[in-house]
Design goal:
This protein has 10 helices and 7 strands. By secondary structure, it is of the alpha/beta class. It has a single domain, classed as Rossmann fold, CATH 3.40.50.970. The protein has a 5-stranded parallel sheet, with helices on both faces. Strands 4-5 form a two-stranded antiparallel sheet. The radius of gyration is 19 Å and the shape is globular. 47% of the residues are buried.
Length: 309
């Protein structure tokens, strides 16, 4: 393998590892109050008595964040998360990047820090279930959808040095606020301001039903975004190679608009509309669901050394 090929392979491996570890931490935050690295078989006492959170969008968030974080084609200055209810994913990445430790000294990159991350997620006095102002870098409230693109353009306003990535849910794009914000590229897309890179997370479902955009063809979606003044770039799967190829294309575009296709609830025992919040409802008391949760966590092959790679 050539040096260039080896470098690319190493980069892709790094992205895949980040997605795998962040996916694991996303699940662990929602479910676990002990046995955080799955050192032994799960028992009922390892599971939180009350399960709160949203897993369905987490994998797509982790894919987008990892690819942006480790890309040579895009130097991300800021990341704006539209589907803020997928907070376990963002929280996991901020933990791995040690950004969380800057505001919470207990979020150390070791077992104790991981235990703190998981135990305190969606817990009284701990981390909220949605993105909130106490989270490093967060400028939109996670419980309200539609404002992310407008906030991203505001963040880039007057700062030509900024590259702002903004992830928009396909259900979120159905809101009037998100649709109206698409016009901002005509007003604020000039050289006096930073560059905004919108990414539509197209997983096809909002809560328990299909999205409008999930039913549109690529031609229809492309025509919509071109009409607003963007260059649509489709990412047809969640692989690192597909995403990095799209970022390379986007680097040469004036106003790129990426469309990431990924399955809602990917990796979980239940998918699509059944994965929006907590895919397994009762692993605290149901032996079958407890075993399903254990198998789900084991699929990520998490090891403590993964935190440090």
């Amino acid at each position: 393998m050539t040096d260039a090929g080896g470098h690319i392979s190493e980069k892709y491996d790094k992205i895949r590892r980040r997605v795998r570890v962040a996916d694991y931490l996303s699940v662990a935050q929602i479910y676990l109050k002990d046995n955080f690295a799955l050192e032994r078989p799960l028992v009922f006492g390892d599971v939180k008595p009350r399960l709160l959170g949203h897993f369905g969008t987490c994998h797509g968030i982790n894919v987008a964040y990892a690819n942006l974080r480790f890309s040579e084609y895009f130097k991300m200055s800021d990341f704006v998360l539209g589907p803020g209810h997928g907070f376990p994913a963002l929280n996991a990445n901020l933990f791995l990047d040690q950004k969380l430790a800057e505001v919470d000294e207990r979020a150390t990159l070791d077992y104790d820090g991981m235990a703190h991350l998981c135990r305190e997620f969606s817990w009284p006095g701990g981390f909220p279930s949605h993105a909130s102002p106490m989270t490093p870098g967060v400028i939109t409230e996670g419980g309200e959808l539609g404002y992310a693109l407008g906030a991203a353009f505001g963040l880039a306003l007057g700062h030509p040095e900024k590259n702002v990535a903004v992830l928009i849910g396909d259900g979120e794009l159905e809101t009037a606020t998100a649709l109206a914000s698409l016009n901002l590229v005509k007003l604020l897309g000039g050289p006096a301001n930073g560059k905004v890179w919108p990414i539509l997370h197209l997983n096809g479902y909002k809560i328990s039903g299909p999205t409008i955009y999930g039913r549109k063809s690529d031609h229809e979606l492309g025509s919509l975004f071109r009409g607003f003044g963007y260059m649509p770039i489709f990412i047809q799967d969640d692989t690192a190679s597909s995403f990095q190829t799209a970022l390379l294309k986007a680097r040469g575009a004036t106003h790129p608009f990426l469309i990431l296709k990924s399955e809602k609830g990917f990796g979980s025992p239940k998918r699509h509309q059944d994965a929006h919040q907590v895919p397994l409802k009762n692993p605290k008391n149901d032996p079958k669901e407890l075993k399903m949760l254990e198998k789900w966590l084991a699929l990520y092959h998490f090891k403590m050394e993964d935190l440090y790679d």
